[in-house]
Amino acid sequence: MAAVDFKSEYFTMSEEDVVRYVKTEMDFFDSNEQLSCKEIGDGNLNYVFRVKGSSGKSVILKQAGPVARISNEFKVSPDRNRIESEILRIQGKLAEGFVPEVYHYDPVMNCMSMEDLSDYTIMRDALLKKETFPQFADHITTFMVNTLLMTSDVVMNHKDKKALVKDFINPDLCEITEDLVFTEPFFPSLRNDVFPALQHFVEKEIWGDEKLKLETAKLKFEFMTNAQSLIHGDLHTGSIFIKKDATKVIDPEFAFYGPAGYDVGNVIANLTFAYMNGAVTMKDQQSREDFLHFIEQAIIDVIDLFKSKFEKAWQQHASDQTAAYEGYMEYYLQNILRDTAAVAGCELIRRTIGLAHVKDLTSISEEEDRAAAEKACLTAGKTFIMNRESYSDGTAFFKVISDAIIKD
């Protein structure tokens, strides 16, 4: 085997290269262990490998390439790997136990190694199998409150917070969000991908609605200018590993300082996709009722538990004198809920008709069922955006989703 230089110049690694890299650049396995490697990534951006040793130990190695895997139109800085490794360490301190442990980061090869979560399941896949996780809402709200409030000006020294804003400027990944979430789904972009049965509906209700476009323009510029919290930036059910008693959040490469409601809204939208899938595909009445009730309660609890935990954490940790003024906490939290509704709406629409879809919808085999689910997502999404000031509790959020479903 020819020697490979990992210290001088970046290149995209193969499975064989990764084995060499782990042996020569990391101190994780014993020197006499036999190693095997398999690429396991199925995401839109990176290369993810699992390396196993003959002892049973294993590690995940993640490498960032110079272009997005979903499309070479997106030139993305490999610095996102540095951002991801650093934010995972921050999140690991703020929300201990809710993210994988990071072992090392390599700025030359733009890769990082971390804890292997093979005993967990990607949440989106588990929900497609109609598995339920009663502790999820409690876990994810603890994670969000701890990472969002504790990195804000409400709690942090303002100069320290501004230094973090500088460290986590993430222009390439932010541009993807600005384009794919807030811009392209709302006009007939060539990168959109509309299910044919919905073409007329989309042209009239989404692309033809000038009031909706105006609201999305407001949301786009708020996203770009509101450096509120150090957000995950892509907190969907494909970025969550889960099992019955534990939840791990992964893939924070879109992290930057943005509106806190962006993370909460992504969680709500992606639970909604699971709900819509179950509503149209499950035929056994009792199983359907049980699964939909779980998702309904999870959506309600994500909002209500987030609110109650946020208020408690504010009382314990708010350090800015003006944050104690009567009524300010309520104002601040309601603005997060407003942004939550808006982002949930944008995510529902963009994942339905934009470039990057979700399996919750695309895996629906019957055309009529898929059209019904997608139309409900678009309807709920539009309602969330247009009426985003109106929702203050979980029940109000879920009513938008329930009302959007076409009743028999």
TrEMBL record:
Primary enzyme class: transferase
Family named by the database record: Belongs to the methylthioribose kinase family.
InterPro entries xrefs: Aminoglycoside_PTrfase (IPR002575), Kinase-like_dom_sf (IPR011009), Methylthioribose_kinase (IPR009212)
Quaternary structure and interacting proteins, as annotated: Homodimer.
Lineage: Bacteria, Bacillati, Bacillota, Bacilli, Bacillales
EC nos: 2.7.1.100
GO terms (BP aspect): methionine biosynthetic process
Domain Aminoglycoside phosphotransferase: 225-272
UniProt-recorded name of the protein: S-methyl-5-thioribose kinase
PANTHER family: METHYLTHIORIBOSE KINASE
Keywords carried by this UniProt record: ATP-binding, Kinase, Nucleotide-binding, Transferase
Record carries keyword GTP-binding: no
Recorded GO MF terms: ATP binding; S-methyl-5-thioribose kinase activity
